Amino acid sequence: MRVTASLLFASLLLLLLPSIEMRRPGKGRGLKGARHKLARDRVRGVGRHGRSPPSCSESVEAGDVFVDCQGRRLNAIPDSKTWSQEPKHLLFARNRIKVLRNGAFLGYEGLTSLDLQQNQISLVEEGAFEGLTQLTTLLLQHNQLGTLSEEALIPIPNLRYLRLYDNPWICLCGMESLIRTLQVPSNRHIGNYAKCAEPTRLKNIRLKQINPELLCQEPDPTSNQTDPAKPLEPSSIRGKSDATVVCHTYLFPEVRMDCSNRGLTEVPAGIPEDVVHVDLSHNEIRHLKAKSFNGARSLRMLNLSHNRMEHLDTGSMSGLLHLRELDLSDNGLHFIQHGVLEDLYFLSKLRLGGNPWMCDYSIHYMVYWLRLHPAVRHSGLQCHAPLQHVGESVEEYVHSYNRGCPKDRLHNRVNEDQTNTAQELQAELEEELEPSHLRKPKKYEIIRLS
Ligand SMILES: *[C@@H]1O[C@H](CO)[C@@H](O)[C@H](O)[C@H]1NC(C)=O
Ligand SMILES: *[C@@H]1O[C@H](CO)[C@@H](O)[C@H](O)[C@H]1NC(C)=O
């Protein structure tokens, strides 16, 4: 008993040692380091004895400490001592913060992500992010920011993801340094989609596309050649909405986009490539067009339920090589077009209920595809028409169709071939992940449907 206890104590000590080591202020860091240390001591000296404000929750997932204060009507960042452990992720979306003061995050030096979207922030003081040296992700979209100095980002050397869209940016001289920073090619996840609201001639131009040379020039009324409105690149396709603007993005526990209930008639463009989960349910999409999910290559879960889809173009799901779960329920689908499911190698769940599946020849592709992909669990595949098959499962229908077929023997042979092909396919899957246009034609494509 005592041996165990002392062993435990020793290993605890061992665990604690490296962190103590890490927190020792670095040598030769100068004034700035000393200032950090002071701030830290001020915070830590008191000890972590407080309790969470009743409204926030603390949790640990995969070893990371999350503090979730979303939608709590808070108008300030709570003191870091409030939490029982040092948070790594601070979720502060949908609150009422208006100003981020200097030193607002002192004591939060361990943060790697900070979600401040959907507040009312209109001012970020230059020292607001002081101390956030570990931070990689900062979400400021859907706020009231008109301007932000690049100086404010200097204390965040590891920043890789910065979201700034849906703020009323005033694209004047004060924004020059920030705009230059956004345009550095290596900052490709920083400030995408953010657009100017003012001045009028720059309205709706993306910060990434403004020529910063011209922001701080005196406007020359005699010339209209040096118009900063002239985009550096061709401007984006009009008409289609940007996913990052119409949908809400959440980063934890996975990158998720909520685009549900937005009256969308098509899939919004520009779903970022790191998004894992997209919810497009309860919209008005009738026709899923080819390349709808172009670039969304990390997608694992796609919810298209409760739309009005009658037709899915052959290439509409192309590129979704990692999709695990697809919900097509409660739409107007009669059948699935040949080839639609071609790229969905790793699909494991498919919801099909609530569609008027038509049990005639057009449904066979769906059933063959399911046979070739025995790992896919599906639900809701029931004949809705014609009358003699209503209520029957679609697979039963195809089975009885084949039984009735005079070329029964031929069909049995095809079936054996399918078993082999399924195994070969499995083997191919393990190594092959290129986009479909780079792939050589596959053996299973020979399966005859007639
Ligand atoms: C811009 O330049 C064109 C031709 O160079 C001229 O006709 C036009 O009036 C100018 N517009 C303004 C607002 O100065
Ligand atoms: C898709 O969205 C609908 C409506 O919000 C929901 O009921 C359904 O459970 C979702 N599907 C999945 C697989 O989560």
UniProtKB/TrEMBL annotation:
Disordered: region residues: 216-237
Domain LRRCT: 167-217, 355-406
Domain of life per record: Eukaryota
Residues passing through the membrane, by range: none
Gene Ontology cellular component annotations, sorted alphabetically: plasma membrane
UniProt-listed Pfam families: LRR_8
Signal peptide: 1-22
Keyword field: Leucine-rich repeat, Repeat, Signal
Name under which the protein is recorded: Leucine-rich repeat-containing protein 17-like
Originating organism: Salarias fasciatus (Jewelled blenny)
